[in-house]
Amino acid sequence: MSNIPPLTGFDRVNLHLTTVRRITHHLADPQWTSNPAIITNEAREGVAHIREALLEIRQLRDQLQE
User: Fold this and answer.
1) Source organism's superkingdom (predicted)?
2) Backbone phi, then psi, for 48, in 5-degree steps?
3) Distances from the Cα of 5 to the Cαs of 1, 8, 11, in angstroms?
């Protein structure tokens, strides 16, 4: 059993945004952007993580307003 505490909402938002930063770096690298399929997949993954981060932020906002 691990002693790692569960992620908080803030941790999850940070994780999603860190992934988006990684994807942004990939898309700025000519090695990655030479293949259109990679660009498409990276962009889709980035959008999905942005959506997840926004959902987490909304949930945190709602919790703080209660």
Assistant:
1) Eukaryota
2) -60, -40
3) 11, 9, 11
Look up residue 62 and give its two tokens.
């709602």
Q: Examine the pLDDT at 1 and tell me if it is beyond 70.
A: no
Euclidean distance between CA atoms 59 and 26, whole angstroms: 29
Residue type, 29: D
What whole-number distance in Å separates Cα of residue 24 and Cα of residue 2?
A: 32
44-56 CB burial, b ≥16 within 10 A, e <16: eebeebeebbeeb
Tokens 């990679």 belong to 38
Contact 56, 12 (CB under 8 A): yes
